[in-house]
Amino acid sequence: MKLIVLGARFGQACAAAIVLGLSSTVIKWQKYPPLPAETGFGAFVGGYGLVAAAIGLVAAVTHFIPDKMMLIVDGLAVACFAISGITLSIRIRGMNCAEDFIAMHYKDRGHAFALFDGGYDNEYKKYGCTVYSDDDSTCDPAAFVRKCHTITADAASIWIAFLACILAAGLAWRSRTRGSVSRTSTA
Predict the structure, then answer these.
(1) Is residue 185 domain-resident?
(2) Cβ partners under 8 Å of residue 58, min gap 6
(3) Is 75 domain-assigned?
(4) For residue 144, is it within any domain?
(5) Most buried among 68, 85, 98, 118, using CB within 10 Å?
(6) pTM of whole model > 0.90?
C-alpha cells in the first residue's frame, strides 16, 4: 500500500508541476498590469500542490508528520485546486479556440480575452492588441489560438491535479487508518 501512496503522491506532484508551468506561461504574456487573478492564483495553487505532494511523500516514508497536519495540508490543496478550477472555468466559459471564432467574437468575450491579450495600457481600448493588428506577432489570430489552447490546457490540468489530490489524500488516509501505528503526535 505504501508504494501505491508514493505513486499517487508522485502523480500529484507531476500534475501540480504542469499547472505551475502552464500558469506561469500565461502570466508571462501579460505586458501591462493588472494581472488576471485566475492566472496568478493558478500559479500559486500549482506551487502549493508541489509543496503538499512533497510533504505527503515525506509523511508516507517517515513518521515525523502528524495525521492531523496531513489532513489539513491535503484538504487545503484540494480546496485550492477546486477554487482555481472553478474560477478559471467560469472565466473561459463560452470560449472556442477556432481562429474564425476568435476573429469574430473577441470583443464579445472580453472577460476571457483578458487572460491572453497581454493587458492594456489604454483605459478606453481595454485590450493590449486587437486581433487584426499586424505590427506584433503576439497579436495575430494564430497567436491568440495558441494562447487559447494553452489556457484551456491549464484549466484541464487544474481539474486533473484536483482529482490527483483527492486520490492521493484518500489513499494516504486509508493507508494511515489501516496501519497499526497512528501518527497523531510527533513523539
Answers:
(1) no
(2) 64, 65
(3) yes
(4) yes
(5) 85
(6) no
The pLDDT score that the predictor gives to residue 135 is 46
As a whole number of angstroms, the distance between CA 74 and CA 82 comes to 12
Retrieve residue 171's grid coordinates: 489513499
3-state secondary structure 84-130: HHHHHHHHCCCCCCCHHHHHHHCCCCHHHHCCCCCCCCCCCCCCCCC
Place of cell 508571462: 28
Count how many residues are written for the chain: 187
Domain that holds residue 93: 2-178
User: Which amino acid is residue 46, in one-letter code?
Assistant: G
> Which of these, 40, 29, 42, 43, lies nearest to 143 by C-alpha position?
29
The pLDDT tens digits for 18-50 are 999 999 988 887 776 677 888 889 999 999 999
Query: What pLDDT does 121 receive?
Result: 54
How many folded domains does the chain comprise?
1
Tally: H helices and E strands in the chain: 6, 0
Q: Which amino acid is at 105?
A: H
**How far apart are the C-alpha atoms of 16 and 10, rounded to whole Å?**
10
pLDDT digits (tens, 9 = 90+) for 59-104: 888 878 888 898 899 999 999 999 999 999 998 887 777 777 766 6
Question: The C-alpha cell of 115 is what?
Answer: 487572460
